Amino acid sequence: MNYIRITNHQTIPVSDIPELDYNSFFELNTGFIFDHPDRHCVNYFGYHEDNHIKLICCIADDETHEIYVSSCSTAIQTRLQAFTSKLLCFEKFEREIHENFGIDFIDHPWLKPVRYAFNRADKTKTIANYPFFKIEGEELHEVGVGPIHAGVIEPGHFRFICNGEQILHLEIQLGYQHRGIESLFLTKKSMLQRATLAENITGDTVVGHTTAFSYLWESLCGYQASRDVHFSRTLALEMERMAIHTGDLSAVCADIAYQLGSSVYGRLRTPLINFMQEWGGNRLSKGLIRPGRDQFPFTSGLAERLKNIFDAFEPDFNEISDELLKLPSVLSRLERTGVVTPADVQEIGAVGMTARMAGINRDIRTSHPYSLYPELNHEPILKHHGDVYSRVLIRRQEVNQSMAYLRKLMNKLPEQTTTNTELGKPKANSFTLSMIEGWRGEICHCAITNEKGDLVLYKIKDPSFHNWLALALSVRNNEISDFPICNKSFNLSYSGHDL
């Protein structure tokens, strides 16, 4: 067989990954996805191996719960036929490989830089000379926003081409704060250092990324976590989902000048994140998740406290949500604004809520299950219109869904096990892949070790890597005044993209 089938959080010898010539590699991986809507690329990356580049492609099959992994070795500074010439969903993966290693992909629509990494192949390409797309016309004008924004958010530049108020094209340029996190995973050797790196991939998805790292590291070390560890991670993931969705609903209300909704949702978020501080000492959940241990055991006292918080939260959340979604002035701003079609969502390979808003069932909790999600019989919430209204509805319903899951989990707390911080040494010459459904969508971490068990590659993919293009597509033919609400309805990550 010219590929290997693995499951989520599985470790295999690197030598078990079949190595193909490039033409076979191309046909195999594009063929996996072509005419198969239940499959998508979860990661495609390269790394230096001796005097050549090793390419590894990982395709997820959401029906079989498997990931198909294959590889190819190629020379540095070579020319290869672009996967993107056949399937657009590979475009950003190939742009990153081009930026990092100088591989020239033939028939790629635009090999523009992705991140401006410090170790990129061509350092003459800088943010100062970024090649923005141009449209010529006397009636057209450009509007630049950022990279320094009025709000307290991260740096990113948005370049609009408009005809009057109508947006014809939006280009999103990121890469302003590349921190080299993937390289730091190789140079930092202690577990605490690496866990801290995972917590800081993106500050609003601390639990999601640290959980992905923890499962990957446990698999790499051959360690099986106990039920109380899985319990805490599941609970923390759903608490993070609730808190961010509630805060985002507040932001959406602010952008349409519905001050009551903004204030109430903002107030409702506070007890959720305050509880995380009460549980683990930090409102963003830093320090809570660690490989091989239940860092802060979830006690019956905490369960009673959280139930009381939910009892106060639930009626107010539902009341303001009902009010929000029946106001004609609100609906006029949400409905049919920022539409991304199911065809476009499928074509760009969107994940998480961005896929589910257009009826595409893409949710790692069911397609590649982990933790206690199989016991919860999770059913992804799908909408079909791909607009701001669909994204708001998903947030509202997922908050209630998460709350119901947590109430169910707290009915039977797991027995606390003895803390074990000795996971052992990572397996030598191994490959591991770990996927988690964060609140934005699919998080994927991959690692490769050498003959000593040391990391030679740590590859991170935040769902924003897939979904920024969806935001750009959503604003086409909308008025420029609709951009803030479209942007907030996605709430994508700058730091999760730039790494």
Describe it.
The protein has 499 residues and is of the alpha+beta class. It folds into two domains: 4-114, NADH:ubiquinone oxidoreductase Nqo5 subunit (Beta Polymerase, domain 2), CATH 3.30.460; 181-498, Cytochrome-c3 Hydrogenase, chain B, CATH 1.10.645.10. It contains 17 helices and 16 strands. The strands form five sheets. Strands 1, 3, 4, 5 and 6 form a five-stranded mixed beta sheet that branches. The model has no long low-confidence stretch (mean pLDDT 93).
- Structural class based on helices, strands and sheet pairing: alpha+beta
Report the major sheet: 5 strands, mixed
CATH C-level class of the largest domain:
Mainly Alpha
Strand residue percentage? 15-25%
Overall shape: it is globular
Low-confidence stretches: none
Number of alpha- plus pi-helical segments? 17
Named CATH architecture of the largest domain: Orthogonal Bundle
User: Could you tell me how far the N terminus lies from the C terminus, measured between alpha carbons in angstroms?
Assistant: 35 Å
Rounded radius of gyration (Å): 22 Å
Overall helicity:
40-55%
